[in-house]
């Protein structure tokens, strides 16, 4: 499989249909193919060799789509850049994998001195807008290089908040297999107009793009997530399907103008990237009654999808048997199991590490053979997530291994405590972390974002938790904040919360 195949097919079958839309441009499949071939020609005329890396530091838009497909067409490897990194961090990632080409939005020009200082191997830098348009228009189109199969397609850097990020190497087969697995597990019709809101440097958004390309879908792009812009786009463009992480779902349905917009066109909402609490999911399903909900679980190293909870698993029966809170079952191209510390498979119902294997598993970490061997030991990708599998293969993710709290010798899964707190009417958002405790080793600490106009009391929240949690799981300390720190992909940065809590922690149980 080669990832440019959908473009070849659709440019021939439906050349005059709309392929991609952003605020400034609408491209048909014919026009997209021509722009991609010319972008590839510009790269080759400047010396791109098969397998060379091409980076993009930009907001979502049609240029990002052209960059992805044009790099593949030229025979290169995409290396999209995390917009929240510093210039030094960006430069590290570029130099680490010897990236020579960088496309960037004008707003990031101020980072270039630091990027160049950290990435002396960077040769060609082009700004989007008039410069990129001229670069493309002046180039002769070239034939597709047709890199495919196990050829390297992408290097996606993970981490960067502590230590050095790792470059995850994904092949054409990896990314295509994940997309096919997601399509097969859709359990409902494909949307005809898909809204891309999450940043395309993130694997969750990137995988959604490959799903849409393989599904003959009209792609609409927002430069960045904004709840009002999402609502406006849904109403104006009659969006049928979109991907939102849980924090984005919360921001959309909580927007004070939500009721003003016609959202009845939405037939599918994909969610994932982090766990969702039951109260939020219930509210989302009520807010979008026409939509089928689909949860995907995975990670960058799995390209990314391992399991899917499809639309059929979001009904009354799933609610009754508890499967609505699971992450679903392995896709048609993936094997998943739960293992103990010795990597032997555990009986159903026991908590252990989630591991997976199949054609979606990464090629490895760029120039990190030891880390690759550790992650892929025994032929299985070790996710670092704790989960449990039921008799029918449904996997429930209970926590990250690093986020599990051990208090007084008992294991506490932060997601369970977060779900309990999220049902309190005064709580808008919550994250639970461990802090050191002189008596218990670690204690459960909850960071709460109150709803507007509410001032939740720790004693009231503690009493609320007692109704559904064992005593050792109840938070022993609370912090109240205006907002939780988020990564560019919308994930809560628990390392930031842990650091803040430890700075003010005395080590004594209150």
UniProtKB/TrEMBL annotation:
SUPFAM superfamilies: Acetyl-CoA synthetase-like (SSF56801). InterPro entries: AMP-bd_C, AMP-bd_C_sf, AMP-binding_CS, AMP-dep_synth/lig_dom, ANL_N_sf, ATP-dep_AMP-bd_enzyme. Residues 416-491 form the AMP-binding enzyme C-terminal domain. Residues 9-366 form the AMP-dependent synthetase/ligase domain. The keyword Amino-acid biosynthesis does not apply. Keywords: Ligase. GO terms for molecular function: ligase activity. The keyword Ligase applies. Pfam families: AMP-binding (PF00501), AMP-binding_C (PF13193). Gene3D superfamilies: 3.30.300.30, N-terminal domain of ligase-like. This is Long-chain fatty acid--CoA ligase. It comes from Sphingomonas immobilis.
